[in-house]
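assembly run, all chains below
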Amino acid sequence: MANCFRLAFALLLTLGAIHAGAAPLDFAHQIVPVLREHCAECHTGDKKKGGLSMNTRADLLAGGENGKVVIAGDSAKSKLIAAITSKDAEKQMPPKGARLSPEKVALLRGWIDAGLPWDEGFAFKKAGYEPPLRPRRPVLPPAVAGRTNAVDRILDAHLAQHKSPRPAPIDDGTFARRAHLDLVGLLPEPVALEKFLADKSADKRARLVRELLANNTAYAEHWLTFWNDLLRNDYSGTGFITGGRKQITGWLYRALVENKTYDQFARELIAYTPESEGFAAGIRWRGDVSAGATPEIQFAQSVGQSFLGINLKCASCHDSFIDRWKLEESFGLAAIYATGKLELHRCDKPLGKTAKAGWLFPELGEVNATAPQPERLKQLAALMTHPENGRFTRTIVNRFWHRLMGRGIVHPTDAMQTEPWSHDLLDYLAVHLADNQFDLKKTLELIATSAAYQSRAQVLGRDADERGYFYAGPRAKRLTAEQFVDAVWQVTGTAPTRFDAQVVRGKVSTQTVSEMKLAARWIWSHADAGNAKAGETLVAQKKFTLASAPVRAGAVAAADNSFILYINGTRAAAGDNWENPEAIPLESRLKAGANEIVLVAKNGGAGPNPAGVIFEARIQLADGTVVTIATDASWQSTQSQPDAKGKFKVEPADWQAAVEVPNSALWNARVGKQLAMQLAQAATATQPMVRAALMKNDFFMRALGRPHREQIVSVRPSELTTLEAIDLNNGQILATRLEQGAARILAKQWPSSDALATWLYHFALSRTPTAAEMSLAREILGEQPTSQGLQDLLWAVMMQPEFQLVR
Amino acid sequence: MMNMSPLDPQNTRREFLQQLAAATTATMSMSAPRLFADEKFVQPKPTADACILLWMGGGMAAPETFDPKRYQPFEKGALVKNILSTFPAIPTAVDGVKICQGLERIAKVMDRATLIRSAVQPDLGNILHSRHQYHWHTGYVPPQTVAAPHLGAWMSRVLGPRNAVMPAFINVGQRLEGVGEQEELKAFTTAGFFGNEFGPMNLPYPEDAAQSVRPPKGMEPGRFANRQKLFRALVDKNPHREFMSDHQQESLLRSMENAHRLISSKERTAFDLALEPKESFDKYNTGRFGQGCLLARRLVENGARFVEVTTEYVPFLHWDTHASGHDTVAGMHKQMDAPIAQLVLDLEARGLLDRTLVIIASEFSRDAMIEGIPGSNARDQATAPSETLQEAKHYGLHRHWTGGTSVVMFGGGMKRGFVYGATADERPLVAVKNPVSVADLHATIFTAMGISPKTAFDVERRPFYATEDGKGRAVREVFARG
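ok done. output:
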């Protein structure tokens, strides 16, 4: 009894009365300073080391990764007290810095024992911004000065509210260059530019925007760069060597050409098809990888980042310190993709707990964790594109705004938990996309036809954004590596004729299709193909020699019921729908000298039924010769099965001639036209200039910032570096292009050096040179332009910031 | 050369401050990582200003080089399990310290070296060159969610160039195109999230290095200068200049200026091996690696910060001895012995060795019997038989060994004639004394260069450390002054 009294007395002396009803504990003046001094650095604001936040009473009571840290009313059982009094350097809190004095410890004890009194509404820092999830349709302010575009209605009001002037409009030439580079990634050709400038109609800018967006090939081949970065797809790179990675190029290219709606686009990437699988599958590394980098976790990270602007990289290892995402949520998303049991790991250590498939915003619905994986992915795809998932639409419109306007409404664009500088603008663009059936071109059109887009780029000082971002017009953007290379190829006319991406480009005329006559016959291994057994397989081979590498080559194939095509030891195509044959690009598969095609076809059905396979390639060589390789009796067939690369471990001894199927006409009647059309498309379609986005990453593009695409890189570096500049100064790739280009350009008849310089300025900068510029150009070109003079002028113009930026 | 000694600590410091200012401006862009504000660390006082990493790409067997074990000559029918070393040991300039026959010249300069015999690497399941090289060069095991910077990029980012015109990170001898696993090599030969400004200048062929800092082929200096003048005049006369006066434009122009300055500088002659006196050139010229060593010396003399010279990693070539190990290694000895010894002597003669850290290292070692470490579940990469020797092609260390590796460090504030750590004398040849992890080895190198292993940058709002989780600890014992 006496002891108890003494203790109570001591407390009274040091702290003032805590327990005594008369003088309640002063939370704000006694407890807050202690917590602020010793705990705040790691456990308040957006910091929550060990998952523990002390921002609010509820946060503190909720505890951290290792469970509760305080039990209100029981300091003896509160780990917090144990931690601040511990002598174990590994366990003690705070881990560094001064220990809490006994007085302070006693204070906190008393506070916990008193039931953790907390001043109502007090928080160490306002809870972090939590973006709204559902879409919101803002009320558009009235249009000002006839600026009716919704973007302008919002921004004009925004500027008026901030008492900021409206940015000045740009001239037609600047607009044409900006719109071309932003929407299709190319410089306007001088002839088209002149026509545009001469056009007097009021709606010509809007028309230009629509025309550019309607150029499906140019649009696709420009935005391919953006999507390859965002979906980390490439034609070469880490992982391909061991088959640990799969391209989605063919699928992506078609999706862009066809302008697949963005909801469907996302659904096909999540609930993947064999063609779009590469995104979800990620990169499989050989050997052991950390638990935070398995393909399942990669799936969660990629889906989070690409579609939602959520960074789950922290939460792949432990509860995030910087936002609200938790380890269980990352693993839950990963478990949707996992085909087996996925064990939770914290910082690579197993927790003895299986992840339960679950999605990040359960308020929209949940994935059925017990459903099979394909079903779970379908459910995830549906939730992602749920009409109430405003995060999905906001994320992509924000990325597009960034691409066109130089800075995100939420910035950086991968940090969608950040507050936008204009809620109305972001929310409007998002609902506009949904209103337009997720047609991304409509978003681009809306932005590009706004007066805001058509205003002068903001002049930035060195201290730009130091006091936060204030909208003052678009910002100049640096050309991407692909845009720069394309622009050089355009001006110099030196684009390559072959490309690496396995895609079919360009348009084909109806006449070409009608004139296309197939030489190929449907073949099988025996004459009784009309009654082939179900599951019967034909393995056919054709060897041939090409005098030179092809400049153009394409093929078509179809099989009743399925086929796999191997060319020179690589799987080149596959199909299982004979009524829908597809064009197969072959340029980069074939080579000068010996070539080998292996075709494996399989009959389907339950009982005996007709079987057949057809293949035809048209190969154009440099000298104009066209070589046709078509299935017929000259093909050899074997009973041996090739390996996954179409190679035989042991050379088959049973080669025999393939048999032309007697009832070819049956199939040809049904599918002959499509075969001809697809072959014409693959082998003869006229192609616009080959684009850099279709090429493998090379030294030059890498130097100019094209990423390695081992990780998702959604924003490229905005600045030219010294090493890049060295390449631009003396790199052989550029120097050679300029030399070839100068020869090509000089081969035309130029009335004068001035005419040549004017043409160059029109092409490169979409404007006429000033008198001062003209005189410099004249000086270097001379009366009769020389190749060297022109090369140097080309270089000096292409090195101008005005050229390297979309201003 | 600049008119001051590039290695004078005073000047280096002043330069460093200037460079830091330049580097700060260069990384103004919003996306560039900044030092992570929450992390507290003190940059140590550097004991070296420049670093040359001599990279034995492909797995240099320690028992065939710097950690000789019991010698087993080639005999038909000899038991493979008796093979620890296929080269006899020879004495060095340090009493009691032996290295392998074939390295006679290096043996003579071992009194300038700290020899770490206890470096260890993780197993990583499949022991693959590309992953272990990634780990060794970045300090992080791939895959990583952000692109991890190369050791040289850390030096470039934190320390900047030592001489303003000289790229801070130069990578000599490794082709990144046209070789096996090229994509895997590119993945770590990068500044990663630091951005290209801090990335490597790649010089795969030392004899062609001069070309990288010369005007394009066929352009004489007069024309090159004229072209630059035209460029600048057009910039000055550009009617839109004032409307683009943002930092993007300025940084672009500054980079163009920097590039031009290097290409027209005196320092560019450092890249030109043809300017080296023949007698000296011949001492180094054992091939591309030897020439690379010479190039590294010339670059460091002219203010380079970090130079890596590799024997080049090409699958199944050079140190990647999956067959005929003994013969191949004999060839590697020939390639490395003279130039490395000469590099050390030349740096010393020029008064540069004290402040230049020269490192010989490899992604792992090799063993005749064991893949990985004892108990490893790694798939055996070798096809050599494991019982008796029949053919010369099976004589050598053909399996990937991660249990104990040698690292040699010359100069740069390291002790001289010093051996740290040891491996067992009988198989398994694991590090039995003072094992040094990749993180601790990096911490040692960083500390010597004046970079705290805890240095962290803010990447996507997370700290990313110079050594994994900031936990690398420098091996204090190897520093000449504690």
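The two ends of chain A are 83 Å apart (CA to CA).

Residues 131 and 172 of chain A are 38 Å apart (CA to CA).

not gonna interpret more than that til we talk
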